[in-house]
């Protein structure tokens, strides 16, 4: 990858790789015209919404492609309809991609229970269980990356490889002030839907994972953009120091949840990572 470089291990047990990816036009970005046409005609609505019962609620989900399962976890305030269609299409060329709505938004129902990121992780584990998927690779963006952390920590047997886009280990992280202010504003705004306010409250009450990150045994890829105001690259670097086996890609000019802006690049990075055999398989 352009402008890439390798850092030596920060400590004995850590495989620490970091790449800097330019956002300008490169040969890697050029796609076959037929593929571009197919991707442009792809729609998330092309797959019907299905439902499973999990933790006393109904979760709505869609599936695309075939192969090994790849679960996408949406970020704060979003529904599965908010995924970039090019990004999903690219992933679905090689994987069985599953997208879903977190409880209380989109096609998923709600109950009276207060939200927590641990509860969202339990819902996610329940979705995999209901679909008969013993283990899946997971891509989580923003809040979805926080949910994915709790999923990997509390249900490690269900997680293969992990990809975190615009991740944070706690809203109290030193560089997460802008994120925390936004969440506080949403949580206190009575004009916003109750489910989104409950999501904001769940993030604010989250104890975080910083001290627990070394317990994540899955190979992990961290993606972040240089212009990410909510979860700046410094947070990603701090997480990498704790994770046992990790790679980082920092995208020049990339903003928060950069798969929305650079879908081909994020999909390429994700696919390269998922397809690469780990040390135990090489």
Question: Could you explain the architecture of this structure?
Answer:
- The protein is α/β, with parallel strands linked by helices and 282 residues long.
- 31% of the residues lie in helices and 21% in strands.
- It is built from eight helices and ten strands.
- The protein has helices at 33-41, 85-92, 117-130, 143-154, 177-187, 194-205, 233-240, 263-275; strands at residues 4-5, 15-21, 50-54, 57-64, 69-73, 96-100, 136-141, 159-165, 220-225, 245-251.
- A ten-stranded mixed β-sheet has the order 1-2-10-9-8-7-5-6-4-3, with helices on both faces.
- Helix 2 packs parallel to helix 8, helix 3 (117-130) crosses helix 4 (143-154) and helix 5 crosses helix 6 (194-205).
- The protein is globular.
- The model is unreliable at 1-17 and 23-31 (pLDDT under 50).
What is the helix fraction of residues, given as a range? Answer: 25-40%
Order of helices and strands: EEHEEEHEHEHEHHEHEH
Could you give a short account of the major beta sheet?
Answer: 10 strands, mixed
How much of the residues is beta strand, in percent?
15-25%
Please count the helical segments. Answer: 8
Distance between the termini: 21 Å
CA-atom Rg in angstroms: 18 Å
pLDDT < 50 runs, ≥5 residues = 1-17, 23-31
Q: Going across the biggest sheet, name each strand in turn.
A: 1-2-10-9-8-7-5-6-4-3
**Structure classification:** alpha/beta
Strand count: 10
Mean model confidence by pLDDT: 89
Q: What overall form do the CA principal axes indicate?
A: globular
Summarize the SSE layout with pairings.
Layout: E1 4-5, E2 15-21, H1 33-41, E3 50-54, E4 57-64, E5 69-73, H2 85-92, E6 96-100, H3 117-130, E7 136-141, H4 143-154, E8 159-165, H5 177-187, H6 194-205, E9 220-225, H7 233-240, E10 245-251, H8 263-275
């Amino acid at each position: 990858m352009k402008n890439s470089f390798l850092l030596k291990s920060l400590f004995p047990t850590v495989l620490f790789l970091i790449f800097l990816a330019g956002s300008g036009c490169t040969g890697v970005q050029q796609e076959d015209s037929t593929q571009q046409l197919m991707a442009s005609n792809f729609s998330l609505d092309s797959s019907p919404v299905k439902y499973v019962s999990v933790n006393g609620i109904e979760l709505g989900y869609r599936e695309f492609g075939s192969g090994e399962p790849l679960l996408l976890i949406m970020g704060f305030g979003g529904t599965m309809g908010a995924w970039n269609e090019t990004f999903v299409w690219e992933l679905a060329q090689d994987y069985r991609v599953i997208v879903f709505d977190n409880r209380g938004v989109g096609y998923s129902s709600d109950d009276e229970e207060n939200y927590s990121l641990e509860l969202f992780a339990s819902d996610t584990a329940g979705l995999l269980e209901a679909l008969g998927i013993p283990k899946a690779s997971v891509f989580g963006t923003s809040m979805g990356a926080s949910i994915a952390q709790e999923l990997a920590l509390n249900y490690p047997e269900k997680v293969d490889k992990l990809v975190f886009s615009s991740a944070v280990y706690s809203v109290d992280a030193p560089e997460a002030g802008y994120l925390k202010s936004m969440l506080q504003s949403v949580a206190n705004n009575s004009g916003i839907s109750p489910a989104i306010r409950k999501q904001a409250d769940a993030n604010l009450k989250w104890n975080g994972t910083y001290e627990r990150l070394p317990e994540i045994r899955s190979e992990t890829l961290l993606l972040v953009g240089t212009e990410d105001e909510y979860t700046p690259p410094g947070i990603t670097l701090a997480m990498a120091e704790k994770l046992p086996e990790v790679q980082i890609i920092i995208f020049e000019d990339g903003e928060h949840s950069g798969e929305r802006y650079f879908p081909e690049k994020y999909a390429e990075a994700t696919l390269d990572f998922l397809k690469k055999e780990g040390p135990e398989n090489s």
